[in-house]
Amino acid sequence: MGHPTEPAPEPSDGVPEPSATEHDPARAGADAPAPQDAGPQGGASQDDAPDDDAPHADAAPQADAPDGAGAQEDPQPAVDAEPEDDTPYQPSVRAYEQRVVATVAAPSATGSPTQALPVVPASPPAADTSTGITLTPPPPPAVPPGSGTAGDGAGAPADPPGGGETGSPLDGLSGDGAPSRAPKVALWAGLGVVVLAGAYAAAQWAVADTVPKETTVAGVEIGGMTEQEAAAALTADLGPRAAEPIPVEAGEASSTLDPAKAGLTFDAAATVDDLTGFSLAPARLWDHVVGGGEVAPVVDVDAGTLDAAVDGLQEALVVEPVDGTVAFKGAKPVATDAVDGSQPVADEAGDVLTSSWLVTTSPVELPTEPVAPKIDQDATDAALAQAEKVTEAPVTVQVGGQSVELPERALAKATSFEPKDGALTPQFDGEQLVSAVVARTDDLLTEPDDAHFEFSGGKPVVVGGATGTTLDPEATAKSVGKAALGDDRSVELELTEQDPEYTKAALEGMGVKEVVSEFSTPLTSDTVRTQNLIRGAQLVTGTFIAPGDTFSLVDTLSPITLENGYVASGVVSNGMHTEGVGGGLSQMATTTYNAGFFAGYDDAGHQPHSYWFTRYPAGREATIYVGSIDMKFTNDTPYGAVMQSWVSGGELHVAVWSTEYYDVKTSASPKRNVVPTTTVHQSGPECEYYPAGQDGFSITNYRKVSHDGKVVKDESYNWTYKPDNGIQCDEPKADRGSDRDDGKDDKKSGGDQDQGDDAGRDESSGD
């Protein structure tokens, strides 16, 4: 208790908890407040108080104190009391917040006074091993309602005296036994989360069946629509576009791709499905609030079909590289620079097509990769340097005692650059260089005299066969090329001996010794026509056909011109009888064809006339027309053959000289499918009268060819003739039949050569 002269403190709503410490001296020292000057509460310093933890003298007696062990009070020095207004504020403590105080029995009557210690009720009694003190919980103190102090003998401890030291106002609050506010906070927080989650889910559910506003797919506005409406809108707008070919570009190349054949299909339902339906994704709700924007369409892709389509595009979209080249313009070298090409990147093209389809209306740009040329710019530059060296100066050639100079233009004309192994290699044309050298010399070469057949005394004999001189083209190209690319621009060439195509000995060993086949056809009364046959017979005679070679009548008779000895006579052109240079030569074709036919040679191509002329065997005859119709056969024997032809006895003759090898038998079918001639009426100044010729019909000819008694060829040939209709002019321009000789053949002036449908040709070789 405070000094007797110190007024008691004002009662409070709660009973203040006295400060207590454990009996353990160490703890007492640790828990004791730091020394300080006497404060407003009048507490004495630690040096003045024998026991800082001794209870006030007015405090209620401890329930568990032993008899005769009353509390002793040391006299306290008097201190001046401070005004009540300066008393520090102490918070009110409710009854349930009071700390339970237990009494401690004193070890002896002369020991230290008892002290009140706070004990947690739920904890078991604890014994002090050093003092033997046992803490026991006392019964709760009786506090009359509305009273701030305890009654005599059994109340709450009185307020500490002014001279005693008070504890912290918060010392009565314990976290171990007092109720916590955390569960309430957590409960209300949980309720808030549930409410917010429900509101969020409700918002998502409310917009689940519509597309977010301002949403477009490939430019089609579908914002705010239901799933069905959006799918219908996309199908209507994008369906036709999805069926159109896709324009694609790869660099400078362009093409189109059929989306269906490429395995691409637009899925409107799947596109909308991704934009509707219940979802807890925040982005979905956000799109409904602020707008969805552009969305890519969903495209179903058949990967295998798309890969195949892309492979098909490769060829169309490849830009071929440009190889470097070097050539000459006159004597000046010119180069074409190398340029890279491009091709689509196959591994990326499919993804680009899929992502760009329907989204863009412009052509889809496929990624490309360069394609290097085979001849790059470095190789081109190197070749250009060589070309400039070639035409740097003339090349001097010494040959056959003569000296000639090949100018730059002649060198350029004979030089070319060919690609080989990534480079341009200079090539020199030996034939060109030989011609350039010979043209600048006088009588440098002698031509070889080819051995050939001439007829003497009606028999073929071999004449000629002398060798000549020439320049070897390969050696010339090598020598001149080396000089043109080097600094020493002079070269010496050697003349070489040139053998004829056929030597005399070679021809004499060909077995040309007897006539193996001969055929003849009658002439007409047209002497001009006969002149053409005489000229043709001269050109055919002496023609040599080596084993395996093919005889061509057009090549043998050409050129069929006035300069080559031919004259104009009747021909059949486009089914019409008219005049032409070389008229009548188809009789040479028929006669020569039959000579080869009976020699057993292979037919290498022939065509009969459109109309039949009685002087020829039906179906076994031929016509010619320069540029379109030829008569050819191949000598398939081991012996050479020589042709002989002449005109005599009113007939054209053709014979084949060789060694007998084949035996030939032939026959023909009767005429069939006969079509009688008619008269065609025409008018106008161009109409000319023409009497009808032979009826039309079909016929088949047969040939069996044997060698050493064995049939080696069994052949048949069908042909159909047109009826040779007459022409009646309603206003005749001229009577062509009045100046003709006897017979229908004579009235045709030998114009029995058929030219089929070859209109407008300059040269003809009709009958």
UniProtKB/TrEMBL annotation:
Bias type Pro residues, positions: 1-10
Region (Disordered): 1-178, 720-767
Regions of compositional bias (Low complexity) in chain numbering: 27-47, 57-72, 116-135
Record field: compositional bias (Basic and acidic residues): 730-751, 758-767
PANTHER family xref list: EXPORTED PROTEIN, EXPORTED PROTEIN-RELATED
Transmembrane residue ranges: none
Domain YoaR-like putative peptidoglycan binding: 382-488
Entry protein name: YoaR-like putative peptidoglycan binding domain-containing protein
Pfam family membership, one: PG_binding_4
